[in-house]
Amino acid sequence: MASQEGAVLDAQQQRQSVEWFRYSKRVVLKSILCREDKGLGLVGERVVAGGWVKWRKEKAEEGVSELTQGPAEAPDVTCCEVLLSRVPLLRSIARILLGKDGAVVPRPVAGPAKSELVVAYFSINDGSCVANLQIVVDSSMSLLGQVMSVGTSILVEGVLEEIPSPSKHVVRLKVEKILHVGIVDIKKYPLAKTRLSLEFVRAYPHLRPRTTVVASVNRIRNVLSYATHTFFQNNGFLYVHMPIITTTDSRVCSKMFHVTTLFSKSDEMEKLIKTSDDERINLEVVKAAIREKKNRIDELKRSDSNKEALLDALQDLQKANELALQLEKQQKSAFIKVGEVDFSKDFFSCPAYLSFSMRLHLESYACALSSVYTFGPIFQADDSLSPRHLAEMWMVEAELAFSELEDVMNCVENFLKFICHSVLENCSDDIQYMSKHIDKDCIDRLQSIGSSSFARITYTNALEVLNQVNDQTFETKVDQGLSEEHESYLAEKIYKRPVIIYEHPKEVKPFYVRIRNDGKTVSTFDIIAPKAGVLVRGSQREERIDIISKRIEELGLPQEQYDWYLDLRRHGTVKHSGFSLGFEKMVMFATGLRDIRDTIPFPRTHGAANT
């Protein structure tokens, strides 16, 4: 008896678990479709649901329509409507004429109680999960001429019912009211086809989240973001916001974007450019006059008459040539002035850049708050078209005071395991979809992170391992140092899991990393992941002011820009370490995507920022 009561109580609790979105009074589809019973426990519940149409079909069914049970008078319908409602072939022809996926839902025709209704079956998705909800609409719900095609948004009210012959889905929504329809021009809608390549949808970044792959990627990205904050907050880190604009030129690693108002707001610059344009026009006029004067002189020479006119013409030509030379000099001078920027008149009174990395600024807070992290965009102006390069990316960066190299390596390994486990636990449907359609190994790859430790190998030992490879020809010789090709081979072919390569030669790492006792290598590490390449870069920072000052001088960096950074070594220095995780690279690792442009909502690359 008690067990029966418990079962009833569990069923009631499941029925009450439908999730109404507080701010739009609708049910989130995830709360229906992602239950263990796939929504069966909610059969009979009245809900309001909304989403975008993924696919549709219609068929004629015999039934009783409330609209056909009225008086015998014929409603105001046309012959065309009657034919459309009774002849399926004509409906198909009308659908072709109106659009590939569009359809006219005709009104029912008055007559006997039993009539043939047009029933449309829609699959909608609101972005909360991979699964779609099937909704059923009969012709009594729509007006003639209303087109319900792929991409249409719809908000409906109805009752959940069990599908008579369930396959992938077991429940559907029988629509009783249509509350909203956002129509689509099927001839212009770029995502009307059901199968679209990632390359194609990149041209429509504002619409591509409606595709299942991109929607799944962004739900996975969301979980990775949340897990990142959860890990650091649970382990005593403080989240601090770092500046996007910096005056520290760290181009030792990458080209940087300049931040300036000179070219957009300077009246003097605008006048200079306008003057340059005017002079260019005047110069062209003068050159045209010179050509005419030369023709006139040739005519005077051929006629051999009026020597005074010829002499005057030659003098005019000389003056025109002198004027042309003067205008050319002024034009060149104007171009030189345009190219020379006086940053003392700029907004910040000095050169400023979009930050390529926040690690230097983050160190200042680690040297006061002990363990800190930040999560934000970074920018690099390299004109690379590599599928692993973006001009704007997101970076997770952390700094740990009183920590040495091994400490920070342990921290990163635990961090990666935590966020991979979070994806498997909270995005199982999305990961399964990516495994089926993008990369069949992505689930195994995520699971392997948590089940085994990372391989750890020094830079020198990595070269030795690669030198022993006989069945692979590398484009770059191993004795020239590790390349991206070599690193990927280590992670994907030899170790088949993430690899931590540490203790690099000091020549290949930035000035701020700690030099080891041998004077040749530094306390650094890179984590190489299958599919993503370099996922994390980290190091123990150089806390000795004499050594870091010498490194700045050796590399020819502007000493004055780093004076504030050296203050951290002058005043209460401490050993500290940190790392940077390329967030888009992490998404690539989790999903198996091959192109980094598919991991971020609005990709910015060389020559492409059209939204």
UniProtKB/TrEMBL annotation:
Q: Could you tell me which InterPro entries the record lists for this protein?
A: Aa-tRNA-synt_II, aa-tRNA-synth_II, aa-tRNA-synth_II/BPL/LPL, Asn-tRNA-ligase
Task: Give the protein family.
Answer: Belongs to the class-II aminoacyl-tRNA synthetase family.
Under the heading NCBIfam families, the entry gives: asnS, PRK03932.1
Top EC class for this record: ligase
Cellular component per GO?
A: mitochondrion
**Which GO BP annotation is one of this protein's?**
asparaginyl-tRNA aminoacylation
Does the keyword section mention Ligase? yes
Under Enzyme Commission nomenclature, its number is 6.1.1.22
- Taxonomic source organism: Phoenix dactylifera
Record keywords, A-Z? Aminoacyl-tRNA synthetase, ATP-binding, Coiled coil, Ligase, Nucleotide-binding, Protein biosynthesis
Pfam families, A to Z: tRNA-synt_2 (PF00152)
The entry's protein name is asparagine--tRNA ligase
Coiled coil (residue ranges): 283-330
Using the record's annotation, list all stretches that form the Aminoacyl-transfer RNA synthetases class-II family profile domain: 372-601
Q: Which GO terms describe its molecular function?
A: asparagine-tRNA ligase activity; ATP binding
